[in-house]
Design a protein that fits this description.
Elements (H helix, E strand, L loop, with lengths): L6 E8 L1 H7 L3 H14 L3 E9 L9 H11 L5 E4 L2 H4 L3 H14 L2 E4 L4 E2 L3 H34 L11 E4 L2 E4 L3 H13 L4 H7 L4 H8 L7 E4 L2 E4 L8 H13 L4
Parallel strand pairs: 1-2, 1-3, 3-4
Antiparallel strand pairs: 4-5, 6-7, 8-9
Helix pairs in contact: 5-6, 7-10, 8-9
Length: 254
């Protein structure tokens, strides 16, 4: 008989070591969680059991299945016995609970008295989410720092521009440097329009404008607003490049 009660997933985990040293029982965890979920007005969607599995990461068969069902919104809440049954990695725990919040899935830890079905529980969820945002920002800062360092050391950040190719992550002239020089020179010495110059070289006007302003051709790298010397060989002289930039300014290009 179908009911209108919300559905809850129950997750239980025990490692072989846990069971030997502390007597943790999957069945005991499961029974406690089933009773608690029903007392709060939930119907049981499914029991997810990872037996003999460590909590060092989230790569557990039943955990993976449960999170996939959570993303698909097949139930409304996840009940666990204790936080360390879910994960012993604080980072994984924080980021996963934050993801559950994004999916609209409530999270209840019986022994830790953490849940998101009450005002106090929601406050805890917000605190956990703040830590998740902090962790993402830290990861972003590390990534940005690594890219800035790579740029300062002359490494190339994005894909190679016309006239270069990437070999073992290094920027190398592809033999078309003379063609690039002719494009710069023709733009400087003639009244050819940007559209005509682009069409002549099988490019879009936006692509041609980007090419004419690209400092990569000077053997330099630009990242995060900073310009550094690259390790690659320049294919345009500073004199020609600067004259082209002066003409671009005269034309009012931004």
């Amino acid at each position: 008989m179908a009911t209108n009660k919300p559905l809850a997933a129950i997750y239980v985990r025990v490692s072989t070591q846990d069971q030997a040293q502390h007597g943790f029982s999957l069945n005991a965890q499961q029974e406690s969680l089933e009773n608690y979920a029903k007392a709060l007005g939930y119907e049981i969607y499914k029991i997810f059991r990872d037996e003999g599995k460590s909590a060092k990461d989230l790569k557990r068969p039943e955990m993976i299945k449960m999170l996939a069902d959570a993303e698909a919104k097949k139930f409304s809440a996840i009940f666990i016995y204790k936080l360390d049954r879910f994960s012993r990695s604080l980072k994984d725990l924080i980021l996963t609970i934050d993801k559950l919040k994004e999916w609209g899935i409530d999270f209840v830890s019986l022994q830790d008295r953490i849940e998101t079905t009450s005002a106090s529980g929601k406050l805890m969820f917000h605190i956990i989410s703040a830590f998740a945002e902090f962790e993402r920002n830290v990861i972003g800062d590390r990534t940005k720092f690594g890219m800035q360092r790579k740029a300062k050391e002359g490494g190339f950040i994005t894909k190679s521009p016309k006239g270069y190719k990437l070999i073992d992550k290094l920027l190398v002239p592809d033999g078309n440097g003379e063609t690039i020089s002719k494009i710069f020179q023709e733009f400087l010495d003639s009244d050819i329009s940007l559209t005509q110059l682009a069409k002549k070289n099988n490019m879009t006007p936006a692509g041609m404008k980007k090419l004419l302003k690209n400092i990569t051709y000077l053997g330099k790298i630009k990242f995060g607003g900073e310009i550094s010397d690259g390790t690659h060989k320049p294919i345009i002289s500073p004199s020609l490049f600067n004259k082209v930039q002066d003409k671009i300014k005269e034309l009012g290009w931004i």
